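Hey, can you fold this one?
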Amino acid sequence: MDEPKKPVSQSASAPQAAQKPEELHKDINQILAGDSGLDKDITKPKKSRTGFRIAIGAVLGLVAVIVIGIAVVAVGIYRFNWHDQFSKSIATTLHLPVALIGMEPVSYSMYQTDLATLNFFYDAQAKSDTTGASAKPTDTYLEKSVISRLIREKFVADAAATNKLTVNQTEIDSEFEAIVQQAGSVDEVTKALDQLYNWDAATFKRKVLEPYLYRTKLQEYIATDATINAEAKKKAEDVLALINKGDKTFEDIAKENSEDTTASSGGDLGFFGAGEMVAPFEEATKILKVGEVSGLVQTQYGYHIIKLIDHTDATADKAEQWHAEHILIKSKDLDEWINQQLGEKGVKILLAGMQWKKDCGLVLATKETCDNNEILTASSADTIEDTNIDADTNVNADTNANTNAADANTNSADTSN
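Sure. Predicted structure:
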């Protein structure tokens, strides 16, 4: 007789009931949300993850506070022109720009440093001036002047690098030595720099002489570039054609067309000896016969047409000399070229209330114009665009970073060295 069948027990190996669709969907959603649900009954991992989330939240909160703080300072700097030490430190740390040339930044930190230097200079001037004649320009005047100069210096340095023009330490030291010779001693120069600018010699070389040399080299490069000066060359060729035509005298054509300061005297340069004129001009003059007119002679000043009037040989008492007249058609003026290039690149001033005026290449207040502005008005009474160290060590205000060494190259119409 068969035994009765025992009921099947619910063993661990027995198949479970199928998962309900809604439960399956819930599990999938948990996985997609990043929660597998495996720790539902485990308390310690849950506590650990909660602490981690709190830590992350705290860090994110701190970052948000920092970002908001920096944003507030940036707004204060750019919109309200904050000058406090904390704002300056933030601007320096973050390398904030005061202006943009295209997308190239002009350093806000350098702007603040140079502005402080000018304020130091005028304060020092006021202390030494018992007459009260040396009035300090307004803060906005100094701010606009400094930013204008920094923009041009930045552009000049970049343009020099693009055209592979370099300035080495030997050249800088040579310029400094020329100033020392003029002033009398290095102690006189360093004393003046310290008293009037709070600078040492190294700072002066970096902030004044190096930019000056870059500007000089770029000026020479621009003046002799055929493409840039195509218009000037064409005009010079037309003037030479007038001379060769013979309807007018050389002197009359010079008066009508020359862009040199000698135009009013028919281009007469008087007598000069070897080494008194730039090399290309002197070399072209030496091969002329008396009464002969040269072709176009290009120098860093432009295109010359030279007529030899007289020549005297050297004697025991006098060196060889030449007497010449010339017509000069100037090459492209460096500042004109810089303004043109900056206009094409686009300049953005980040400080509120100021704009770059491309027609005159200056930073001005929004409502100012190139014909009516504070810089133009003030400069007629007090030129702060040049820096000169005279023989008596008088150091004048520096916003254009030029020294007396620049006198050798100030007049592009002057053919003498």
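The chain has 13 helices and nine strands. Let me know if you want another pass with a different chain boundary.
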